């Protein structure tokens, strides 16, 4: 995921200012070489260890943890261990995903494994995960949400990998329901843990399970929007090549929704994808067919539906959710 | 590490019988494909998912957890979550280590990444770690030991990797003190967590920190013995090629001790290693020089010293440590 414009408000920036010193302190217990690679992965340093002012990610997950705590009357600081933990888990998953997917670029820079090699990058991912666990080891309620998220995260990534061997047509095509379960794990679980651990540490553990569901819905919306950006996003914004997910045969929401449509373009699309879209012309053509069959519009509608469900829960159950709500709405607007 | 003859007694087998159903239950929450790869990594299945009766490791770490609980008057079952967790972390670290080191064989079979590919093996390692964390998420005292072990483990592995770029002679040679710190992390931390979490869950949390040190000493002994087996072990026992660590320029205890000796063979060895030992003759010659300079004897003495320290603590502080003590002594006898 690459949240391009997570929020117009100052709340996310305020959370980021709290987060960064805590993240740096967490990383300081690593071996110096490991700390240097972690600093690159987190966006503070270039590959030679020099300070880097770049796109280290917008910190959506930690902001959700801290704003969730505030939404139940706690302080942002109270949720800081959860905020640090989810940001570290996010960095861990990106480091390993880029190895798995052979992605050479990340946030307009080399991927970690391109900069340091596969072995060191793999180990740095492990280190980031160990630091995340360490943040919440002494807080069993929040830790249980993080632990559940880790299992759902790897299960979602395994499902995503297994989808690569599924066909584009016929009875074994990936369904929207299967897609939704996969992204609920791959992307939803960490937002779920952020929200649930956030309200728990903010003083309202009784809202933890409800916020888990809410965070997961947000995550599904987030991933659907990311899927849209992966096809139609501007490369200078997303940091990825245009149409990159189409080139890699990724089972994304717009494509699956287009294939499921009763439309002539859907059949043409499944034939084209089954042949494989390798050259520029066929990739462009596939993107046009996805749009023609209604895949892009369906994705926008579905993402907005999930965000609306999440916002509805906040409006009903959280006394002071204005900043959290604004962040969620801004996430849904990214693909417009 | 590859404990070849961890114990003559039935205590380890008794622990293994308790462990296996709990491990299988832990793995059952994974995606079916992930569960299949985990079953291969844990030694229950071959690469096609068929049941496999093989060398899944002797279960030394979980036995230490369970026997530590018994040693303070608790039941083996009370320490089962810690036992499962340390075995899963061990399997995680082997899965990732084999990717990092390009090792194609593990326990007389293909390494996980050779069987399934780097991406799936990497993800399976992550899954095993997530399951380990899940075992102790609700037990903050034991979780804190596991969390500390994870950080020391990755720091030790990072140090081990950094040693690859260190020379064989001159002022930048790796010292025995640096080696010891590295293996205390890479190998000692997980045995430390097993012992400390074991007594904690067994009802004596006040002994946790002491048993951490004791387990770490055992781990250092364990690794020194493994280093000896990595040079002089029988390939059909260790499952590794003869002299494998020498071929790979690994900074192991016998070699470092030999280099530090005031002996003509030490100087000849450093010259030989600096040139690189690639052919059969030079590898054999290097092994002979390590022995001639006293590296093998020094390793045996040092391992026995660490085991004696650990056993001394057990004799003084644990009321019923007979089985745990026997296991530890048997570990020290592996290299004889």
TrEMBL record, chains A, B:
Family membership noted in the UniProt record: Belongs to the FPP/GGPP synthase family.
Signal peptide positions are none
Keywords in alphabetical order: Magnesium, Metal-binding, Transferase
InterPro entries membership: Isoprenoid_synthase_dom_sf, Polyprenyl_synt, Polyprenyl_synt_CS
Matching entries from CDD domains are given as: Trans_IPPS_HT
Q: What is this protein called?
A: Geranylgeranyl diphosphate synthase type I
Give this protein's Gene Ontology molecular function annotations: (2E,6E)-farnesyl diphosphate synthase activity; dimethylallyltranstransferase activity; geranylgeranyl diphosphate synthase activity; metal ion binding
Please give the biological process terms from Gene Ontology that the record holds: isoprenoid biosynthetic process
Keyword Magnesium belongs to the record: yes
Name of the top EC class for this enzyme = transferase
> Any idea of its EC number?
2.5.1.1, 2.5.1.10, 2.5.1.29
């Amino acid at each position: 995921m690459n949240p391009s414009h997570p929020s117009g408000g100052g709340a996310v920036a305020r959370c980021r200012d709290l987060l960064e010193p805590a993240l740096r302190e967490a990383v300081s217990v690593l071996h110096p070489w490991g700390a240097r690679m972690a600093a690159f992965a987190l966006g503070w340093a270039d590959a030679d260890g020099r300070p880097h002012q770049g796109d280290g990610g917008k910190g959506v997950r930690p902001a959700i943890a801290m704003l969730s705590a505030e939404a139940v009357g706690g302080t942002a600081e109270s949720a800081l261990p959860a905020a640090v933990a989810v940001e570290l888990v996010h960095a861990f998953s990106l480091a390993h995903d880029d190895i798995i997917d052979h992605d050479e670029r990340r946030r307009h820079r080399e991927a970690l494994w391109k900069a340091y090699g596969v072995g060191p990058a793999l180990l740095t991912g492990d280190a980031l995960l160990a630091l995340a666990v360490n943040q919440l080891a002494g807080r069993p309620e929040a830790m249980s949400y993080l632990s559940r998220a880790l299992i759902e995260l790897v299960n979602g990534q395994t499902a995503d990998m297994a989808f690569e061997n599924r066909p584009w047509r016929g009875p074994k095509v990936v369904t929207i329901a299967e897609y939704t379960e996969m992204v609920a794990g791959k992307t939803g679980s960490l937002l779920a843990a952020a929200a649930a651990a956030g309200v728990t540490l903010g003083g309202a553990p009784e809202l933890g399970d409800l916020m888990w569901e809410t965070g997961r819905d947000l995550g599904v919306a987030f991933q659907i929007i990311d899927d849209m950006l992966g096809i139609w996003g501007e490369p200078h914004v997303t940091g990825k090549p245009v149409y990159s997910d189409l080139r890699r045969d990724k089972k994304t929401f717009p494509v699956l929704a287009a294939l499921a449509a009763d439309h002539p373009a859907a059949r043409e699309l499944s034939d084209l994808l089954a042949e494989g879209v390798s050259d520029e012309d066929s990739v462009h053509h596939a993107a046009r067919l996805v749009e023609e069959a209604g895949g892009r519009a369906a994705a926008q509608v579905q993402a907005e539906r999930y965000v609306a469900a999440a916002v509805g829960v906040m409006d009903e159950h959280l006394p002071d959710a204005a900043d959290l709500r604004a962040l969620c709405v801004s996430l849904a607007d990214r693909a417009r």
